[in-house]
Amino acid sequence: MIDFHTHILPGIDDGSDSIALSLQMLRALAQQGVDTVVATPHFSALNAAPLDFVAQRNAAFETLPKEAGLPNILLGAEVAYFDSMSHCEDLPALKIGDSDLILVEMPFGMWTDRMIEDICAIPRQQGLMPVLAHVERYARKDQFSRYKGWLEDQALFQCNAQFFLKGLDRRKALRMLSVGDIHFLGSDCHNMAGRAPNIGDALAVIRKKLGEDSITYLNNTMHAFLFGEGV
Length: 231
Ligand SMILES: [Fe+2]
Prior knowledge:
Layout: E1 2-6, H1 19-31, E2 36-39, E3 42-43, H2 50-62, E4 72-75, E5 78-80, E6 101-105, H3 113-126, E7 129-132, H4 135-140, H5 143-151, E8 156-160, H6 167-178, E9 184-186, H7 199-210, H8 212-227
Parallel strand pairs: 1-2, 2-4, 3-5, 5-6, 6-7, 7-8, 8-9
This protein binds fe (ii) ion (FE2).
């Protein structure tokens, strides 16, 4: 299983603040059946240039000691949406591993037509496929349903494990997964306390409510987009 969204690299954002904590988080994910972790530290164009960020991210990764039994780590970023990002020359530096995927965090306020047109231009301008991070957060504010028609075929959708773990949300999450609206699952883990790795809990809910086929579907979908033919 893949954890597609994590803040597991030490000392680079508001996620893990030490090598010891990163290792604890990685061990927890391994115990939950995760064999591949996508490291997606926050990137903000307001704070750093893409290439400088990538150098810092790679340095943070290099500090992690190799330990048998830990998941493989793919390097990426959670890119906060910025104006005209489809035209940013260095945007490809922020993609995930060798894939054509780029994880984008949309604004929490109102979206505009122009923002969505910009996102939809990323495949054409950059040859990259945007993956919108934790779309359930925007679904609550109705942004996602309003623009979903525009985004389909131009973007993919990631949900957090937490979406599957609470009452009313759970039903919505299971329905979205059933109809193919969720392409990626991530823990969005930041630490071992309030935002701990919880992929295993979400998988248990999916397995119980939808059966093993849904786990296989999710795993195959994530593998195909991450390691397959690409966009
Ligand atoms: Fe995140």
